[in-house]
Design a protein that fits this description.
This protein is an all-alpha fold and about 120 residues long. The chain has one domain. It contains 5 helices and no strands. The model has no long low-confidence stretch (mean pLDDT about 90).
Length: about 120
């Protein structure tokens, strides 16, 4: 349970960075004419928002340990916690991946400006 919550805590810290990246990318949708780059921007934003939504869904639907103890035996609780650990691990990976992708897209957008 603690390991699962540690991943959750790290993921929550990433939410702030993910939102910042999405806010930084969004204005470029109105100022760029390169369709391929616009598609990359839109995909990057979708991935950031999708990972954020997955985290919010997990938090809303993940079982609460105290309530589990009232209805399940130890083995059932352990199996459920393992499944939840896998879910939050995958969400953490999606968050990291979406952030890395957004940073790469942002770097490509800003690179020509540095050369001017």
């Amino acid at each position: 349970f603690r390991k699962m919550m540690d991943v959750h805590d790290v993921a929550m810290e990433k939410i702030v960075e993910m939102n910042r990246l999405a806010r930084t990318l969004k204005p470029y949708r109105d100022s760029l004419e390169d369709q391929a780059l616009l598609d990359e921007i839109n995909l990057a934003i979708e991935r950031l928002e999708g990972a954020d939504e997955a985290m919010m869904q997990w938090m809303a639907t993940s079982p609460k340990l105290g309530k589990l103890r009232d209805t399940l035996d130890h083995d059932q609780i352990m199996a459920m916690l393992e499944a939840e650990q896998e879910k939050i691990d995958n969400i953490g990976k999606a968050m990291t991946s979406s952030m890395e992708n957004a940073k790469a897209v942002l770097a490509r957008i800003q690179e020509p400006k540095k050369q001017d």
